Each structure stands twice: as C-alpha cells, then as structure tokens.
Amino acid sequence: MVINDLKNYFEKIFNIPSGNQYFSPGRINLIGEHTDYNGGFVLPCAITFGTYGLIRKRQDKKVRLYSLNFKEVGLIELDLLHLEYNRNHSWTNYVKGMIKYMSEENLNINSGFDILVYGNIPNGAGLSSSASLEMLIGVILKEEFSFNIDKKSLALTGKRVENEYIGVNSGIMDQFAIAFGKKNSAIILDCDTLYYEYVDMNLKDNVIVIMNTNKRRELADSKYNERRSQCEKALLKLQSVIKINNLCDLTLEEFNKYKYAIKNPIEEKRALHAISENERTKEATELLKYDDLKSFGQLMNKSHISLRDNYEVTGSELDVLAESSWKQKGCLGARMTGAGFGGCAIAIVSKKDLDLFLENVSKDYKNAIGYEASIYVASIGQGSTKLN
Ligand code: GLA
C-alpha cells in the first residue's frame, strides 16, 4: 500500500481529500528485555514497518476514525468531550487515550478531525503496534495543533495511555524507541533516568531477521502484569536489607549477596533475570560500539536462555525459533524480542547464509509447531514523523 492508495481511501471514506501524512514505526529490542520497568537499560531500534496516518482537521468537535486494518470495526465517530474508554471502540481507544491525556496536559485540541490509519506491522506480533499508534497520534496532534511538546513527553503520555487508560502495566521502552528512532541506529536508554544515546548499527555483511511465531498472544497482558508484580515483590524484600530504588540498581555480585532476603524461588529467578539482563545490555552496547557483532550475538543467546529459564516468558514457539537459529551457519545470535509469550524472535544472520537460514528455520518451526512462522528481513528506520 502506498501513500497514494491511502489518499484515495481517505477521500472515499470521509468524502473529502486528505491533508497531511504521518508515519510511526514499530520496534524491535536487540537486548534488555523486561528491564525497563525494573529501572534498567534497554537497546531497541525502530523498524521500517509501522503505522501510517492521514488527517484532515474539521471545523466542528467531531473525531472520525477509520483503520484499514480493522475494516470490520467500521467508522468510529466520537466527540472531543466524550473520551472515556469503551471496549466496543476497539483500536480507537488508543487514539482517545492520547487525545484525553494530551488535553489534560493543557494542550488545547480546539477542533475535531478525521483520521485514516493503516499499519503494516504484522498484527499482534509484539513489535509494538499499539505504541506505534499512540506515537502516531501524538505526533499528528503535536504538528497539526502546533504544540510545543518534546518527544520525551509524548513517549511518557503514550506510556500513561497504556498503563492507565488501557490497563497494561508496560514500561517506557516501546514509546521511547518509536518516538526517538533513528535510521541505522539503536538506542541505549537508561529507563530510570531516561538518559539515552544513539549507537551506530554497523551490521557489516549481516542482516537482522524478524521471525514471527504467529502464535495468538492470549492472556499475554495478564502474564506480563504478573511478571511485573513478582519483580516488585522481590524488590520490596531486597529493600529490607539494602537501599535501592530498582532491581537493576544492583550488580549481579550484589544480588548474590542479598538475594537471601527474597525467600521465594520464583521471585528470585525473576530478579536474577532482570539484573543479569541489565548487565548483558550494558556489555552488549559496548560490544556494538566496537562493531563486535560476534560477541554481541552470544549475549543475545544468553538473554534468550535467561528469558526462557528464569523469566519464563518464551514458550515452545519462541524457543524453537531461537534454538533452530542458533544451529544455523552464519547466525551470530538469536533471541525473543518484546514481552514474549508468542510474538517475535530476532536473529543476526550473515547475508551469504541467509537463504539457507530462512529455509531451515522455517522447516524446523513447521515440523515442531505444526504451522508456519513468518520471517522478514528488518531495516532500522526513523521515529514517528510527518511525511509531507
Ligand atoms: C513490552 C512492554 C515494554 C517492555 C517489554 C519487555 O514490549 O511494552 O515496556 O517491558 O515488553 O522488555
């Protein structure tokens, strides 16, 4: 689908030509999983798959929304004064949440608008289609109403929508990566202070491969919230013996010294993952700065193993993808990416071995799981932006 097709759709649906065009990416996380809400580091990048939005402002206070990905939901019509969550409003709740919370920040959205949305992020793949949509709406409102608001505030508003409006207790990684994405760069972000730096992704003769399990992510949100609360319990207990604000304030060495306070094997494993993953992420960033992709890949593998054994968020689908990747010639590293419980894995693979890699991993997955995975080569792209 190209912009011209979207313009035609807009005109057909809203009976008026579209105005400006916007794009907001999805994201992958190279390493640093389930560390963001534990005050640790993450290393994500924006990808060139994402969500397009076309808008025309209106004279009245009506908001009309249509997504080409949810044609069955049809045209949803709202007004700026009624922005409460409504289950039946499906995907438009993310839009309503952004309008509501941006308005609460004294940004005066003084007219309604029509928006057409189209996303090419594989559906439910854990590549952050919801944060992509939140940041799309954030940047549309910022530009169309000339708001003086920076990317960081938009990312925090998106997170608030996710946490308070939608009810998923997620961290800041997705919205931040999507708002701040930069072509061919990863972002090392300290989720405690929100200090960040760009790191050049010099992939040399390799590519990043995204492997979608195509597993339905049922109950994923409740399991995510459960992991988060297990970490909070572990933190509380550790705080009785050492002064820290977040699990990731501890080094692995300190953790080993104080872990006796946790007294619950599950919570201990969860904390061990967060703290060891944080150390891996810092180390991996240094390796990337020196273009040492080989050692970087090994840390990706270790990350997956910890997510499998300690955090227990992989499941057989992601494990098959990672473990099959590890066996293939030319694969530098592979791991699940995002929340887990289905969704996607990523791998760094040398270009010359790519064809065989794709063939073998697809075959292994189909044999073990019974249905196909979808596999794509990813490109690292820019953050949410106006296109015209
Ligand atoms: C989801 C959340 C993020 C982060 C990851 C796990 O993508 O939205 O905030 O916690 O899971 O690293």
Automatic annotation (TrEMBL):
It holds the Pfam family GalKase_gal_bdg. Residues 93-182 form the GHMP kinase N-terminal domain. The keyword Nucleotide-binding applies. One of its GO terms (biological process) is galactose metabolic process. PROSITE patterns: GALACTOKINASE, GHMP_KINASES_ATP. Pathway: Carbohydrate metabolism; galactose metabolism. Keywords: ATP-binding, Carbohydrate metabolism, Cytoplasm, Galactose metabolism, Kinase, Magnesium, Metal-binding, Nucleotide-binding, Transferase. Substrate binds at E33, H34, T35, D36, Y224. Its main location: cytoplasm. One of its GO terms (cellular component) is cytosol. InterPro entries: Galactokinase (IPR000705), Galactokinase_bac (IPR022963), Galactokinase_CS (IPR019741), GalKase_N (IPR019539), GHMP_kinase_C_dom (IPR013750), GHMP_kinase_C_sf (IPR036554), GHMP_kinase_N_dom (IPR006204), GHMP_knse_ATP-bd_CS (IPR006203). Residues 287-366 form the GHMP kinase C-terminal domain. The active site is at D174. Belongs to the GHMP kinase family. GalK subfamily. NCBIfam families: gal_kin, PRK05322.1. This is Galactokinase. It comes from Clostridium putrefaciens. The lineage of its organism: Bacteria, Bacillati, Bacillota, Clostridia, Eubacteriales. The gene is galK.
